[in-house]
Amino acid sequence: MTEVEQELCVCRERKEMMLTSKELFDRLEAAFGPSQGWPGNTVTIMATAVMVQNTAWTAVVRAMARFPQELTAEYLLALPVEELMDYIRPCGFMKRKAETIRTVMEWYGRYDFDETKVEAVPQERLRQELLALKGIGEETADVILLYAFHKPVFVLDTYTRRMLKRLGGTMQTDAERRAWFLMGIPHTAKMYDDYHWLLLEHGKHYCKKRPLCDECPLGDACAKNMDEEGTRK
After folding, report:
1. Helix, strand counts (H, E) of the chain
2. What fold, for 3-36+154-224?
3. What is the model's pTM?
4. Within 13 Å of residue 193, how many CA atoms lie on the same side as its CB?
5. Residue 17: pLDDT over 80
6. What are the residues facing 232 on neighbouring strands?
7. Which CATH class is domain 42-148?
8. How far is Cα 128 from Cα 157, in angstroms, rounded to an integer?
9. Residue 136 and residue 71: Cα distance in Å, rounded?
10. Segment among 80-84, 112-116, 132-136, 206-210 with least mean pLDDT
11. How many whole angstroms separate alpha carbon 8 and alpha carbon 16?
């Protein structure tokens, strides 16, 4: 039995949630429409994946508006670090993030800045290469793999973990959470892209630190809104 199959068995043995993964996806798609994806070209996706660490996407939008041209790896590597820091200042932690962006672009340079060469490399090898870069954690690596290079990686982030817990999920590890999401859905990069985008939209609009439960399109299926008898609060 593979690791994923073992985690799926664990998920099935736990208390059933009110929604399946596929039902959750369908509800979110009905609420938010088709996925808009992660905006930008390959280089922009990698750079903004770093910029958004520990900050809101609105700060990334402000930072991107400060650049005088479309982002390319060559342009970012040619920029003095201090100038790059100034452009991404709205995102905070600009020194660390500027250094990480340059590190990622240098890594991309090993593949001659050719996304097709990166896409030809096995997913797990790419993930380990990214995780070896200073400033790149699991979430950022997975975002880059999924959105920049179209690898079928299901991204787990703060919004996703929070929502799953509020929906009644009792999973203890990210492996268990990921296994739950993978049950009953196509295992393709396009599906994971769409799903993650929808989870982000729901987290930004409703499932915040202080959730807007009365307006939430998942309110009737949310454990947070149920009393011990299973009726709506």
Report:
1. 13, 0
2. Endonuclease Iii, domain 2 (1.10.1670)
3. 0.85
4. 19
5. no
6. 226
7. mainly alpha
8. 19
9. 19
10. 206-210
11. 13
Beta bridge partners of 226: 232
Quote the tokens at residue 204.
């930004």
pLDDT digits (tens, 9 = 90+) for 53-102: 999 899 999 999 999 999 999 999 999 999 999 999 999 999 999 999 99
The answer to whether 51 and 97 have CB atoms below 8 angstroms apart is: yes
Structural tokens at position 83: 């100038």
The amino acid that residue 15 corresponds to is K
Could you tell me which residue, 2 or 217, shows the higher pLDDT? 217
Would you say the CATH fold of 42-148 matches that of 3-36+154-224? no
Distance CA 64, CA 91 (A): 10
Q: What is the pLDDT of residues 173-217, one digit of tens each?
A: 999 999 999 999 999 999 999 999 999 999 888 888 888 888 888
Which residues have a Cβ under 8 Å from the Cβ of 153 and sit 6 or more positions away? 123, 127, 142, 145, 146, 189, 192
Query: Could you tell me the residue ranges of all domains in the chain?
Result: 3-36+154-224, 42-148
